[in-house]
Amino acid sequence: MAPPPWNTTEITSQLTRGIRRRSLLAGVAALGAAGAVGATGGCSRVDVTGATGGGHLLEDLRSKGTVRMGIASEPPYASINSKGELTGEAPAVAKTIFQRLGIKHFEPVPVEFGALVPGLHSFQYDVIVAGMFINKARCQAVLFSDPDYESKDAFLVPKGNPKKIKDYPDIAEQGLRMGTGIGYAEIDYAVGNGVKRGTIQTYGDQIAGMEALEAGRIDAFAGTALTMIEALKTGQHPKVEMTAPFTPKVDGKLQRDGGGYGFRIGETRLRDAFNRELHKMKKSGELLRIAKPYGFTEEFMTDLTAKELCNK
Q: Greatest CA span in the chain, whole angstroms?
């Protein structure tokens, strides 16, 4: 079989450089739909829908009355609870918006996070509703709404925060032992602030990180604040607490990130209608009210746009 016309090594490199809160699988989510990323290293976007004039999916969804939502199980963004119900901040916001667009019924389609983009391209669902981080590599394969939240980093530390850790420079200056998730962007944030890459220990998730903290193998576990808030809700690690959320800096530049909703390239009419409702909710404060039960507070609200994040 002839090799594909795109440079998969370069695509993988671009995608993994765009990793944020998720592991390596998240960064390469679009690789399964690499044809949509485009040839010569992902520099162009290809409309896999055949949509013209902004697409007709909005009208089709209104006619059917149902929208299929691709989700991945990651609280507090989206998940199926123990009762088999769709829950999380992203579905709660999306349901409100789609109802206002005249679509009353919702069909969740649970998949692994790494399968979200390929599933969108193969028409398994109509929109990605998973709090997906927006970055330059993913924007070659997905048409994103503006973000509905902004991510912040934080540290899990022993109760009382004995090392007084607030930011990555504290780890570097004190020569502390830091843990984080496999493939997390927090590794680059730490290295960018002087932490030696070889000293950073990686773990499968926040729970494993808390166990390492309690065992004294690390002094802090770095990750995104929202996932840590969720992990601490279990109450199984009373000797661990979370530091105040913050936006990391590298070389003096704030590393701002946000997540939103993903549509197929070409479906701009649906994306634009979705954005209009989202902006109304931001302005009125309704977005925060909907998101608050899932651990989102004012500091996670954002004025970032998809265009800014796609061009980072």
A: 61
Find out whether 114 and 26 touch, Cβ atoms under 8 Å. yes
The two three-digit tokens of residue 42, written as one number: 């992902």
Per the listing, tokens 């669902």 go with 125
Mean pLDDT lowest among 30-39, 56-65, 254-263, 287-296? 30-39
pLDDT at position 24: 36
Residue 248 has pLDDT above 60, yes or no: yes
Whether residue 62 contacts residue 102, with contact meaning beta carbons closer than 8 Å, is answered with yes
Could you tell me how far CA 243 lies from the centroid of its own chain? 21
pLDDT of 38 higher than 70? no
Computed over every residue of the chain, the mean pLDDT equals 87
pLDDT at 195: 98
Higher pLDDT, 211 or 51: 211
pLDDT score, position 207: 92
- How far is residue 26's CA from residue 230's CA, in Å, rounded to a whole number? 19
Sequence-ordered list of residues with C-beta below 8 angstroms from that of 283, at least 6 positions apart, any chain = none
Rounded to 5°, the CA angle 59-62-66 comes to 130
User: What is the mean pLDDT of the segment spanning 227-254?
Assistant: 94
Q: Is 268 exposed, middle or buried (0-12, 13-18, 19+ CB in 10 A)?
A: middle
CA distance 21 to 31: 18
The predicted model gives 231-245 an average pLDDT of 94
- Listed in order, strand segments (DSSP E) in the chain are 66-71, 79-80, 86-87, 105-110, 127-133, 143-144, 149-151, 153-158, 178-181, 201-203, 220-224, 240-242, 249-250, 253-254, 257-263
Residue 51 Cα distances to 47, 95, 122, 127, angstroms: 7, 24, 14, 15
Tokens of 132: 């997906």
Torsion of CA 25, 150, 283, 311, to 10 degrees: -70
Query: How far apart are alpha carbons 120 and 106 in whole angstroms?
Result: 16
- Taking alpha carbons only, the member of 73, 89, 86 closest to residue 292 is 89
